[in-house]
Amino acid sequence: MRRIDTLDDIEEGVRALVAADARLAPIHAMVTAVPLRRSMPGFESLASIIVAQQVSTASAAAIWARLKTHVDPLTPENYLGRGEEAWRLAGLSRPKQSTLAHVSKAVLSGELDLLDLCALPAEEAIATMTAIKGIGPWTAEVYLLFAAGHPDVFPAGDVALQSAVGHAFGHESRPGAADLRAFAEAWSPWRGVAARLFWAYYATIRGREAAPML
């Protein structure tokens, strides 16, 4: 599988996208840069994505910093070992505490191999991850984008991507996940670069970062 590992890969993807869909050229022209945003695959990377769900970038960063302080190093063993008091002090919500506990147990039991699944086709990797209680499609897709470097994943459930695409193409309201997923099929096999492009576009038009914290 081709991976998005470098800024050269991003540039290649953007060129291919603009050539295939001329509507993306003015969108690309508006953004300063389309960032790579890669992280090392593993528990810590997935944990950072879970922490970032449904909170602002500033809140996610604060919670993440506290979690890394109270669970150091941040490993499945240490997360479970520190227990609910440390999780509460970090500011994790009950659902996120539970999700990280389920992920920790799955990693330790061998049910979830966060390195091996990076080599799987996207559909198979997403199915493996979403079998763990608390992990939904958005979490799995973002992990594959930024930890695995998957080139053709588009997290259509992401509200910022929905807003960015709706704004870019003059929709009166932002498209829902199903509509956006169908819309993004035209950008295959570079949907992972298209997602980065629209997160960068969102940051430009809204003046704030919206891509998931890593």
What does this structure look like?
The protein is an all-alpha fold. The chain has two domains: about 5-40 and about 150-205, Endonuclease Iii, domain 2; about 45-145, Hypothetical protein, domain 2 (Endonuclease III, domain 1). The chain has eleven helices and no strands. The protein has helices at about 5-20, 25-30, 45-50, 55-70, 75-90, 95-110, 120-130, 135-145, 160-170, 175-185, 190-205. α4 (about 55-70) packs across α5 (about 75-90), α5 (about 75-90) packs antiparallel against α6 (about 95-110) and α9 (about 160-170) packs across α11 (about 190-205). It is globular and about 55 Å long. Its EC number is 3.2.2.21. GO terms for molecular function: alkylated DNA binding; DNA-3-methyladenine glycosylase activity; DNA-7-methylguanine glycosylase activity. It catalyses: Hydrolysis of alkylated DNA, releasing 3-methyladenine, 3-methylguanine, 7-methylguanine and 7-methyladenine. Keywords: DNA damage, DNA repair. It comes from Phyllobacterium salinisoli.
What is this structure's SSE topology?
Elements lengths: L6 H14 L3 H7 L12 H10 L4 H14 L5 H15 L3 H16 L12 H9 L6 H10 L12 H10 L8 H8 L6 H16 L8
EC number: 3.2.2.21
Enzyme class: hydrolase
Keywords: DNA damage, DNA repair
Compressed to H and E, one letter per element, the order equals HHHHHHHHHHH
CATH-defined topology of the largest domain:
Endonuclease III, domain 1
Helix content: 55-70%
Number of structural domains? 2
Biggest beta-sheet profile: none
Distance from N terminus to C terminus (CA atoms, Å) equals 23 Å
Mean pLDDT equals 94
Can you tell me the CATH class of the largest domain?
Answer: Mainly Alpha
Query: Architecture of the largest domain in CATH?
Result: Orthogonal Bundle
> What's the shape?
globular
The gyration radius over C-alpha positions equals: 17 Å
Give the helix tally.
11
As residue ranges, the low-confidence spans are none
**CATH superfamily placement of the largest domain:** Hypothetical protein, domain 2
Strand content: under 5%
- Secondary structure: number of strands: 0
Helix-strand category? mainly alpha
